[in-house]
Prior knowledge:
Elements: E1 4-8, H1 13-25, E2 30-37, H2 39-45, H3 61-86, E3 90-97, H4 100-110, E4 115-119, H5 125-131, H6 134-141, E5 146-149
Parallel strand pairs: 1-2, 1-4, 2-3, 4-5
Helix pairs in contact: 2-3, 4-6
Amino acid sequence: MQEHLLVPLDGSEQARDALEYARERFPDAELTLLSVVDPADAIVSEPITGAYESPAGTAGAGTEMLDELETTAAERVEAAASEARAAGHDATAAVVVGHPSREIVAFAEDNDCDHIVMGSHGRSGVSRVLLGSVAESVMRRAHAPVTVVR
């Protein structure tokens, strides 16, 4: 039976390295490349203009930003899947919206992934505490083995 690998991609060099690792280490595996769009990124990207109401003309701006982030993520992950298919791999692309670590774990479970291969930004100290570690959270919560590439 062919192994099914989940490779989360966030556009970083570390995620790209994880994809290369998965392609080299598991040449016969089915690859699902996943991009998780965090809704908080759309909120953070919007300017803070008022505490209680949106200025005229900006209602829905967060939704528009989220749509843009989803489109960008879909293009990026589909390009990576196309590249993997061109190299002879069985690869599909997927995009979901939500908290990255939760969505990665849920996607792996819902899609019967045998293994998760992901990149780590290698943060430590205060930046790790403040920004969190998606890879660490996935390792703690996933039912499938997780390989972290740094």
